[in-house]
Amino acid sequence: MRDTHAATEDAAADDRRTFLRAIGAAATVPALVGTAVGDASSESDAPEPIRSSDEIVPITHGVAVGDVTATTAVVWARAEREATIHVAYAPIESADNAGYERVGVDGETDYTGRVRLTELASGTEYRYFVWAMPAAAGPMSKRPLDIDELTADAMPDAIEHGTFLTAPSATEERSVTFAWSGDTWGYGDDPIDPPFPGLRSIAEREPDFFLYHGDTIYADAQTPAGKITENTPLDEALEIYRDKYKEMRDPPASVAERTNLRELLESTSVYTVWDDHEVINNFAGPIEPLMPEGRRAFREYWPLDRDEDAAPGDSNRFYDSFRWGKHVELFLIDTRQYRDPNVEFDSKTLLGREQREWLKDALTDSDATWKVLASPAPLGYPSDSWATPADRTGYETELLDLVEHVQTEEIANLVVVAGDVHKSVVGAFDPDDDGEFEFVEAVAGPLGAPSGPADEQYAPLNPTTFFAKGEYANFGTVEVAESGEAITIGIYDEFGDEQFTKEVQATDIDPGPTPTDSIESSFDDGTDGWLVSQNGGSDQPAYYETGGNPGGHIGDEENQGGIAWYYQAPFSYLGDRESFYGGTLSFDLRQEQPDQQFDAEPIEGGDVLLAGDGTQLVYEFRDPERVPGEEWTSFEVPMTASVPWIDLTSQEPLATEERFRDVLADLTVLRIRGEYRSGDDASYLDNVVLSK
């Protein structure tokens, strides 16, 4: 595929010849010479050319190409001082179609610049060259480089170069390969210092592109560049953020000779996603005062092409999709900039309304065989994002909304690739328990941060785990066959040794719903994805293999005083359940210490709670004899407005049939009360059945 940075004398000489051919071809095209990006001045306005290579301004931190499409690409570089950055580029196979662009840089962007290349050929390997000249005529100087005066010996030091591949067009049947990982340098009390072998191993695999999947720096961890804390003054934060990106490309000599990042970025293109450590640990964008400075530095130091009109420091859209031929569309999402803080469970958003609707529409409209969703944090593995049952800060409602959209729109062949959790995990999910996977998810990383042991995947999504391993540095790969019939997911350690591979056939993923007359949880094989919900969050219940009615069952033994808490149904019970109107919900409950029923007000949730379509309905057992005892007690709840269901979200005290049907048609929450005593309590649940 693409050549890596030339290391031998012969390769360097070949690069020089290619460079001279590219510049020579570009120089014959009047429209490409003497016109800077955004500058409409005529060629006659250009100052005299510089006659000495000594006047070339150094490129300080390598080069990179990113956000590649079939016809465009963005080249990134940083000059030592105010300068004009020049870019010459041409297909590797022929310099006849060479191009030339340039852009001025100054201190406003820390001397970083991005040059957008256009009218490229699809599915084509390109080589590009970058150099900088003094900005004697201002930041948009048009001073050309005098090729005749540039000696062959000076060229390797004065001019940076790299390679990239443009995406195939949306109609081309081409194979696609990429690698992904993240989490590099500076985490915890004992950070792992560079170099990072995983970056070198990825470059050696020569992927079509690299997905740098979050925590590309650890701004809030101590490294030579400093450390961001919540007390860092805003006027100091930007420089620390910028220095973090610089040291990731060129670490201090006292730490390491290299990180291997520059070499990787020279060998292929990159799509870069941010996560929390680009700003500060677990931040929520709208309320984080440091976010604008961290966002600005992220945009300055990566070749992004997702909001070209954004000025330095302004809001930037980081989410977008990129098509790679007939079979692959890559969807990048931003789970930081728009998220709500960890507030009441039912009201939080991770993506923000605009991004959420864009993602749903984009997935629906895509005709690519494989839809690859790049989420910084996993959908199906505990983190601080989509679902975090351990610390009660999950965004499960929005996760449900997305999963339900995948089901109802029958979005086929969805694969999620993620990072953040410092483990490698591959699994598939069947949340509606119809025997067909709604999506496959692969998690990879870290590249440089410490890794702990792997945990279980998120039970409410009904996971099947294919592979889980922690406590090592790793990266993932995706390969889509030219025919599009299969996708292969690979996990490799930092030295490139295979840990796991799995091939998934396109027909393996069929999200079409299967009609059912009942949904059951007998708990004979596990928790069936049920959670315990209280205090605005959720947690895993205890599981018992025996002692149920009969067989296994679940329970909760937390001492929560007089707070009402509930067993929360998994996704298999939720979604469009209007056909269950007129049916029943039955279950068995048992208490460890029976007592009079704790008389919760309806606003606490009653004995059974249903929520959907902005409405909350609760049902209460009014009979004083109908309370759980030390032995199993069976309960049956009619799913109809013909019995008293209290409508908490309407001025009408009791639910109407219309309101009840609306809730069932968009059922997002089903909870069964577990707390029946004031004071410490323990209760147990078995044999939940929702039937028509």
From TrEMBL:
Write down what this protein is called: Alkaline phosphatase
Key words, A-Z: Disulfide bond, Glycoprotein, Repeat, Signal
Cross-referenced InterPro entries: Laminin_IV, Metallo-depent_PP-like, PhoD-like_MPP, PhoD-like_sf, PhoD_N, Phospholipid_Metab_Enz, TAT_signal
The Laminin IV type A domain covers which part of the protein?
525-692
Specify the species.
Natrialba taiwanensis DSM 12281
> Which CDD domains does its entry note?
MPP_PhoD
